[in-house]
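User: Protein folding is very new to me. Would you mind checking the protein record under this note? It all follows right here:
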Amino acid sequence: MRRSYENALRLLETRRRKTRPTNPAAPATPQDFATPSGNPTVKGIPSLVGMKEWLQALGHSENDVDNLNIIHITGTKGKGSTCAFTRSFLHTHGLKTGYPKRIGLYTSPDLQCIRERIQIDNQPITENLFTQYFFEVWETLTSPGLEIATGTTRQPRYLQLLALLAFHTFIKENVDAAIFETHHGGEYDATNVIRKPVVTGITSLGMDHVAQLGPTVEDIAWHKSGIFKPGAPAFSVSQETGPGEVLRKRATERNTDLTFVSSSHTLPVNEKVLSAPVQRLNCSLALQLVKRFLQLKDSKYVLDDDDISRGIDGFSWMGRFEVIESGRSRWFLDGAHNTLSLEQAAEWFSKNINAADAPTYRVLIFSHFSEERNGVDLLKCLAYALPKHDAKPDHVIFTTYQEREDGTTRIDKTLKVPETPFPDLCAIYTSLWKEIHPHATVSTEPTIQGAIKLAERISMQQGGMQAFVTGSLHLVGGALNLLRP
């Protein structure tokens, strides 16, 4: 096969499984029953299995991974933003001192293209670099000698392959520091092949991915704290009592110090970046991670007030608490896709729409299709949260993840198709919204482009509007491609 970007994407897509496994991992390991609820939660083959052997097959030792100087971050809400703040502070320090000169960042999912997941120096890696390293990984791990080298005929699944590609890329490109966001959980996550992170961080915890992580927030805390490693300082934002105690216990078991971080009152004023309270908390966590990271690398490294201010000014993270101005239309985009995130996004939207000269007409564009989460529960959360924060929409538009009306899709962005047909699911959403808000005006559009066009027509009729786009990163990514190509 020709080594092209398009062929790399086609091969990567073959490793995506159609559905998540439902059967418990067999045989169950003793650790499976160490979760607070006592129930095994690992389904199928854990994502961590095989990662060490595959890395070795690629020629990367444990020391090679250690030498990436990794900051490992997990949580339920705010992982991506915390990673981005962490990168921004490291970048600012690197500009001043020369360290770190090159910074790798691995996150998921992507909004606009797959290469967003693997970034170096604030930019997604190029198509050429992605293609080169992808085929190096693919050809090694599909070679006839793989079974002899690794003791298994299994090949990496989609997320495992992307994580391996990130490790391979960062090692080959000689980054000085790397920030890794987990996929789901922590204990059995593919990224937990990291043996010696410099520091680890946990963002806000809540109920998400319960099929894989367990039925209680304490179970989720147990899985997330699996990234704790002996001797690597651990930081977490302040948590509720139950999960907080789980984190403390796990830190003790892992022989590491755990520090809980509250929202800092000394951060500089920046209404654009820090207007959402949760972003102040994510920023505060990132700041502590970077301070300790630099201290451990060299005691002379210190972030001063100017570094912190420049780091916040330079922060960017697509699709999270993002505002786009277009004439009399203002678009508020946040890829919230769990109840904790939606509550925070609703509060942020409310805080930012009540300026004296702002349009008063409000539009909500919502879409959510997922095996893992109940879209009805998410919409119900939003239906109550927006009025509570004095941000009830005047017009609601339900749509899909299909971006364009002509049916075209980008080659490096996978279109997620719901199992339930669009008309049926949107009928359910419409019925639910009108049950809660009987006098609401509700529309459905089969594409994101159609939803945006409808909102723009409404804006012209009303002399302006404020649109809130939320419910899924797939929706927000598509909207960003149309609003800001």
In short: The CA atoms of residues 323 and 332 lie 5 Å apart. The radius of gyration is 22 Å. Residues 277-297 form the longest helix (21 residues).
